[in-house]
Amino acid sequence: MNLPNKITTFRMVMVIALVIIMLFPYQDVGANIPMVFGEVNAIYFTALILFVVAALSDAFDGYFARKLNLVTNLGKFLDPIADKLLVNSLLIILLVPQVILGEDTTQMQIHILAVVLMIGRDLIVDALRLVAANQNKVLAANIGGKIKTVLQMVAIPAVLLNNWPFSYITTTINIAEILVWLATAASVISGIIYLVQNRYVLKEAHTDE
What we know:
Blueprint: H1 3-23, E1 35-36, E2 40-41, H2 42-67, H3 73-93, H4 97-101, H5 112-134, H6 143-160, H7 166-169, H8 175-197, H9 199-208
Antiparallel strand pairs: 1-2
Helix pairs in contact: 1-2, 1-3, 2-6, 3-5, 5-8, 6-8
């Protein structure tokens, strides 16, 4: 296994650690979870650190793969899986902070519609790529998908930080929530554009049948 693939594997291990830290039954064992900066639960702050490290590893594995000419089929297979596991696992977990922190928690959560739209978009795009692969075609990512990814990588930390430090700037507008909906909009729009741009794949698939 080459260096980029090792980094990708490391990211997948980080996702497992992240999920364990987020879903550990702290209440059942009577653990007293401190707050960071007065507003951020320490569990979520720890998850933020792991998330940032994992996200940075994504940039490094791609850089080394291109720089050292180490692009492999295994890397092409593992990299998107690691990315989806990282983002989608957190999107689902952030739906229900009450499960982790108790019913009286003030931790913000992501709206279920945003999660369904973002994960649903990824499933549809991946299905289209699978159809294309069966036709020996490779569908390149568009700029909209990259914008979506950047917004997700900004929105998720903002939610983990419970809208800190934006809460010091304004208490009437939840900046983290706005970032989530921007990421959702970018996800849906980029998905629609992707489907329109590559609709010929579905037409050819229909013709073959």
